[in-house]
Write a structure and sequence with these properties.
The chain is of the alpha/beta class. The chain is built from 6 helices and 15 strands. Keywords: Phosphoprotein.
């Protein structure tokens, strides 16, 4: 399921969204009428998409978006406003749309179709002992070999994958991932800090070691990612 945060101090808009979403099981919806509270709770949640009102007390939608960028968020953003004059200010990294509140019934279905198309092309299938699981790239934190077993760390749990090799899995992933040593793949967007040859990943307490043989390629990719975020 796709996890969506709706951040808007307009309770009527939140109610309209919740009414629309109640007839589908594709989404998990978490509403916030307080942008400051969202920022405080951001690190304890992991959202795929954020509907973000532009005009709010405490932090405006543009300020929240800047907060997300500064914290390397990969969430897709859809800005929301009563006024279309803000549209030109909303083109930025990870922003995929703009909804006018007065046209929500027309524009929300279109926005959701766009979201589903994006996730359809950024979802990976893995086989565990008992089932196949589909995960979006935003759900995957680390894939590593531990005691000859392949562990896949998501935002809130660990899956043991059935057979296979870490190198084979790496070939199936996209450019959002990097093989930092012979037994560990990380999601580049989940990096929260780097100390020496230790890489720290969001939602995981331990550090992961960067091989000296992979260091040059890693930093080339990492700095390209940072540059793209700051455009």
């Amino acid at each position: 399921m796709i996890k969506i945060a709706i951040i808007d101090d307009d309770n009527l808009f939140i109610s309209l969204c919740e009414e629309y979403f109640k007839n589908t099981d594709k989404y998990i919806i978490i509403p916030y009428s307080d942008s400051k509270l969202f920022c405080e709770e951001y690190f304890s949640n992991s959202f795929d998409v954020i509907f973000l009102d532009i005009e709010m007390p405490f932090f405006s939608g543009l300020e929240v978006h800047e907060f997300l960028k500064n914290n390397n968020s990969t969430c897709l953003i859809i800005f929301v406003s009563n006024q279309d004059k803000y549209i030109l200010n909303c083109f930025d990294i990870n922003v995929i749309g703009f909804i006018q509140k007065s046209k929500i019934h027309l524009q929300l279905p279109t926005a959701l179709n766009k979201i589903e198309n994006i996730f359809m092309h950024s979802t990976f299938t893995f086989q565990t002992k008992n089932e196949f699981i589909n995960l979006s790239k935003n759900e995957i934190c680390v894939i590593e070999v531990v005691n000859r077993k392949i562990e896949l760390h998501t935002n809130n749990q660990i899956h043991i994958l059935k057979n296979g090799k870490i190198s084979t899995i790496y070939c199936l992933l996209n450019d959002d991932f990097f093989l930092i040593n012979r037994s560990t793949i990380i999601n580049m967007h989940k990096i929260i800090s780097i100390t020496g040859n230790q890489i720290f990943i969001k939602n995981i307490k331990k550090a992961f070691l960067l091989s000296k043989y992979r260091k040059k390629d890693f930093y080339s990719k990492y700095f390209s990612l940072i540059k793209a975020r700051n455009l």
